[in-house]
Give the backbone structure.
Amino acid sequence: TNLISAIRDVKLFFFQCMLIYSAQKLI
């Protein structure tokens, strides 16, 4: 199954969302 890669993609997506959210908060 591709469960491991799916979890990895979700973690990457969540990490990117957190970065964008933090950047918008700083501005």
